[in-house]
Amino acid sequence: MLPPDWQNSIATYNEALTRRQFFRQSGTGLGVAALGSLLGQSVLGAGADTLATAMREPWKIAPKAKRAIYVSLIGAPSQLELFDYKPDLRKRFKEDLKDWLAGQGERLTGMTAKQEAFPLAPSMFNFAQHGQSGTWISELLPWTAKMADDICVIRSMKTDAINHEPANQLMYTGSMQNGKASLGSWLAYGLGTVNQDLPAFVVLHAKHSSPLSNVQAISARLWGSGYLPGKHAGVSFRSQGDPVLYLNDAPGIPRELRRKMLDGLEELNLRSYASIGDPEIQTRTQQFEMAFRMQASIPELADLSQEPDSTYALYGEEARTRGSFASSALMARRLVERGVRFVQIFHRGWDQHGSLPRDIASQCKDVDQACYGLVQDLKQRGMLDDTLVIWGGEFGRTVYCQGTLTEKNYGRDHHPRCFSLWMAGGGIKGGMVYGETDEMSYNVVRDPVHVRDLHATILHLMGIDHERLSVRVQGLDARLTGVLPSQIVKGILA
Question: pLDDT per residue over 312-327, tens digit each?
């Protein structure tokens, strides 16, 4: 039997403040008050905010970039077909590399490990030097070639993973294990937001224009917040219909009523937070408020009809097609222009184990002009100097063929030891090539750049000390670059 006053007893219990809750809720306030009394009034002038920020966010350094756009090519584009020119390989067409591979000590995937032969497959595409830098770029990327002096091509990227899911997790969360915070979430957490009406981190999913033989699946872990507060997760915009679900109020629900509903809900959440102190309650309240503000800001953002014809001439006519890569690139510019801190465009279909010449040509056609248009658009708006653009996949491809090799068709397996990507804008030295691979595009022989080094460099350019930005997780200080060695790639900095 329950006691007669059981309802009052439960209410009293819920309203009680535990010792732990008292110190958690009051400790910060008491500390700030004590510090203020010690420092005196002299610090409360113009420099007070700077001092408070430095004390509260010791990881912040002088930034080169205010915002970033990451073009993520899921499936791993072949460096041999795009940026890592190896003309001497054509003389060795179909040479069996089985004995040579045995001496490299590299593990092979289950897709090629049992091949009887490993025929060398030189790229069938032509390369030429472009710009004052003389950067070698494939004929597959004629628009990218036009901006050779704007970009820095890194040919010496390397990773630890040989399969897509762990490689993508390492590339976009800093770890091959589940549950880690993504790069965009770290940036949102460390830097905050600029536009209160839009998320700090937005994800776009671009469609490929042609049927492909292998489209790699991806999971929301790549833009999740992991152990960071949920409000720092990437907000995924849809390519069809409303960019965000439930963007419009339900029929019969005017804005004034929606506002009153949210105010009432906030009051209830505040009571719950005061009782149990769960930070996710605050996150939920903040997300409700963000959604309310987005209902006003998103329709204007998503309306591309006001863009002039010159914009579509720059990005390509595909930019008029909602959900295309070109449309996503244009949307990325509009997002960063309005204060979004980090935009990530995912473009799948680069996993070319077979029919590589056909599929990679189609994929390059999807992204080439639009990426050129994005960089030039940012430049002409005076935004490139403080906008960082990154373009690349999760690992490279093998010099040997997977499956049957002919002069017109071949495929390539996964390869973690070397791959290429490019960066532009926001503190990057344009018109240069960094790093070098061996004659087989198999090993890095000069200036290796690990994925962790790339992360450290991105954070540095965005104004974050990668060694100091961390959160306590299960008794350990977790950070994007982890505990293994990582360094800023100073050779690519302007």
Answer: 999 999 999 999 999 9
